[in-house]
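Practice problem: predict the structure.
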Amino acid sequence: MGKITSTFPVRIKRKRIKKHSEITEEKRNRLIDWVTFYRRNIHRFIEHYFQIKLYPYQVFWIYYMNIMDTFVAIASRAVGKTWLLAVFASAKAVLYPNSEIVVVSSTKEQAGNLVDKITDLSNNYPNLYREISNITTNLNRWEVDFHNGSKIKVVASRDSSRGKRSTFTIYEEFRLIDKNVIDTVIRPFSYVRQPPYLKLPEYSHLIEEPKEVFISSAYHKALWWYDETKKTISAMLKGDNSGFLACDYEVSLRHKIKTIRKLKSEIDKMDEVAVLEEYYNIPYGENSNSYFKLKMFERLRNIKRAFYPITDYTITNPRKNPFYIPKVDGEIRLISTDVAQRGGKENDLSINSLIRLLPTHKGFIRELLYMESYSGINSLLLSLRIKQLFYDFEANYIVLDISNAGITIYDQLGTLTKDADRGLEYLPMTVISHPAVSPQEYKELYSRTTGTNALEVIFPYVATADRNAQMAVQMRDKLQKRMFSFLVDEVTAEDYYLKDLKKDENISSYLAPHVQTSLFINESIGLSLTYLSSGVMKLKEISTRRKDRYSSVAMGNYFAGFLDSSLIREDSEESDLESLLSVTYFS
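Answer:
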């Protein structure tokens, strides 16, 4: 980010600290003047003493972080948020002895990135290096200690972090931090730094307010960070000691942190909502007619690790899968497949969703553990993939959209399938006998199955206006009752996988199901409620946004609703039997 210049003396070794009696009055006054100047212009201290060259937007950013009691910055990717915080925190620690600077994030590993940046800076800028006495980086502790008694500490945003102290608190990616933890655990850390001069009568009227800095990229409007940011902006406009800054991708282009080619390559791989938030710095919010609200999903994103199908195939042990999740008693597993009508980037996607159903007295808890999408895949490959997932996941049922192109997939599933990569053969599959499948539909679909000894595992979904409306109502109901669980977002998930990542592995493959879950949620909250002329409700996608992922998950939930009824009835019958057996009859 910057270069060492020769305009200020650089010393690798720290000089001996002079005693008060060794410093003349004149020099003492000069020191006071310079320290005062640098505390009021901390960006100049960074450039003069650390010799780190700052861009104009960084000067502005650092200056206001220093003078405001509360400061919020919403910045896009690749503008150097963490690097800038590392520079600023180091300058703050040097200029204010015995400071306790606390960096808070959703996980310690994420906040620990700032300490790693300070380590890199100290290796490149000798005057910063000579101020640091020790840097600790391990799974349990990230901390930077300075010779003047200041500390920069990393704290995870959890209840167990109580009891810490902070004169300056930095919230890294604060949108991912629980608001209740901030208010009840982190904010009580704050205390006033107690420099010796405050004990002198002539300075007794002065006080250093503890400060807070909130840094994040933009995110969904429905979450707490958005209201908190608006409050800070309102306070700033009223003249309170609060500040706000926002910058988008153009900053990274202007200062050649990113190239246009690289930026376009990254954007092409993302959906439009993620691009709006991560690069254009525009928060996304559902419209007033949205049938599903973001809060319905975000409060249910609590699954840390996804299920992954087999990727390393072996003939001798085809079931070897390090990500295998054993079943619990009474658990049922589904594969729910929405089949594209046409291939191509601008048209529908084929979606496979893997859902666990965990039994409770209120019905099955749904867990969406994995999702994958395909554009332009042919029926042979998609039917093979469904069967692979069926055995990898140890699924009990396949919920299949048989409208339009889906009937072709059904026909392919009804044959013996050979898997050349795995050296396996998969049995034919056919329709299940179910009250929701009419006798005529069952007879017709069963007759289309050409293979023998077919497994009765396919629940056919045929889209109608009434059924789609019922499917939407049931999906909303289960979300409101918190009967669903989803994977955490990809930013949070990255910290979980980095610890286990091997040198030759790409983390993107691990994050893919988490990204798919985010895309599914974006699709869902982008569905507006309309009504057909018949009075039946309909969910309509905004603009050209898809709803394939929503359809896949909602179909699985629709079928799970029938299983709920069976589970609750069985539980009720057992309860009635227990009550009957417990009755004592007297003659």
